[in-house]
Amino acid sequence: MASAGRTATAAAVPEDVPLRSSAARPMPAVGMGTASPTPVAHEATKEAVLAAIEVGFRHLDTACMYGTERPLGEAVAEAVRRGLVQSREELFVTSKLWCTQNHPDLELPSLRETLKNLQMEYLDLYLIHWPVSIKPMPITFPNKKEDAVPFDVEGVWRAMEECQRLGLAKAIGVSNFTTRHLDKLLAVATIPPAVNQVELNPAWQQRKLRAYCAEKGIHVAAYSPLGGQNWSGSGEGNAVLESEVLAEIAKARGKTVAQVSLRWTHEQGVTWIVKSYNKERLEENIDIFGWELTDEDRHKISQIPQKKCVTATALFSPEGEFPSVGLSDMDIVEE
Ligand SMILES: NC(=O)c1ccc[n+]([C@@H]2O[C@H](COP(=O)([O-])OP(=O)(O)OC[C@H]3O[C@@H](n4cnc5c(N)ncnc54)[C@H](OP(=O)(O)O)[C@@H]3O)[C@@H](O)[C@H]2O)c1
């Protein structure tokens, strides 16, 4: 099944999505992610990003937390040298501010460090990774609950706005924000967020958040569109790749389960970001155009039981207490 209709080329990828920031180039409708639960060799990430560019991906997602900014930047430079793209400008690169830097005075230095890692002059999109602040310190994972501190949404967003004004980020946005977090942010923002990157797939459809973001002009990007990489460590299995409903639809359409999930996500008007470091699967993932799900398929998918995998508590070790922050302020689970 995995070879179903593999004809991926850059030309097969549909139009890009305009973002509300006038300085930003439109966001390509599909992207490649680079997060892994266990460390991956520098060279393996670089090769995977090069393979992604080769099969047609023009949108690359990283974060200082992932440790993949340097190999991703090297892959982009190599792609230009090899003529896979003419210049860095052809690519849309997103990175994210980690929770330990979620403090107004640390954001610009953190972005400059990110750009140094990437060997780039600017990011296409800079995101607040989580609505969570942790005491300033080098990146650690998991974190101690006693290191969580209140998230100064106004101060942090002002510094993000400054990053955009300086031209170091062409657009700014957030990640893992619920409608409640967005309400607070929009109340203080001069530049509204262009994007909210959240967990989204047929097993966690985020209907309420998508409706809210559509109304406010915030574009939604989907992480874990294939159900993710067992980020919670529960080992419970993958609700997308192991879905019988999706498997049935895939069989009927001559597609893979991954392609059905990515096609459904694309049809929701959401930009997906999928991680694969395997060239065959990269080709399979980008090959979701030129066909559609039927109304019956969409109805069946709408009935899939909903379950969120990634939660804010997963950022912290189980032991200890939150001394100065309520979990309800950070909670990102919202039906
Ligand atoms: N903002 C945030 O807080 C946040 C959180 C999580 C993720 N993200 C971003 O979103 C990206 C994607 O999310 P994710 O990594 O959680 O999960 P995902 O993309 O849903 O799933 C990735 C997993 O699926 C496998 N896979 C990829 N294509 C496949 C296919 N066609 N068939 C079967 N298996 C396939 C990958 O393995 P192989 O590599 O072996 O193919 C990998 O184990 C991340 O890499 C990261 O950039 C952001």
UniProtKB/TrEMBL annotation:
Binding site for substrate: 129
Gene Ontology CC annotations of this record: cytosol
Gene Ontology molecular function terms on file: 3''-deamino-3''-oxonicotianamine reductase activity; aldose reductase (NADPH) activity
Domain of life: Eukaryota
Active site: 66 (proton donor)
Keywords: Oxidoreductase
The keyword Magnesium is annotated on this UniProt entry: no
Signal sequence residues: none
Pfam families with a match to the protein in the record: Aldo_ket_red
Site (Lowers pKa of active site Tyr): 96
UniProt-listed GO biological process terms: response to iron ion starvation; siderophore biosynthetic process
SUPFAM superfamilies recorded: NAD(P)-linked oxidoreductase (SSF51430)
Alphabetical list of InterPro entries matching this protein: AKR, AKR4A/B, Aldo/ket_reductase_CS, NAD(P)_OxRdtase_dom_sf, NADP_OxRdtase_dom
Domain annotation NADP-dependent oxidoreductase: ranges: 30-304
UniProt record similarity statement: Belongs to the aldo/keto reductase family.
Protein name per its UniProtKB record: NADP-dependent oxidoreductase domain-containing protein
Phylogenetic classification of the source organism: Eukaryota, Viridiplantae, Streptophyta, Embryophyta, Tracheophyta
Gene that specifies this protein: LOC111255680
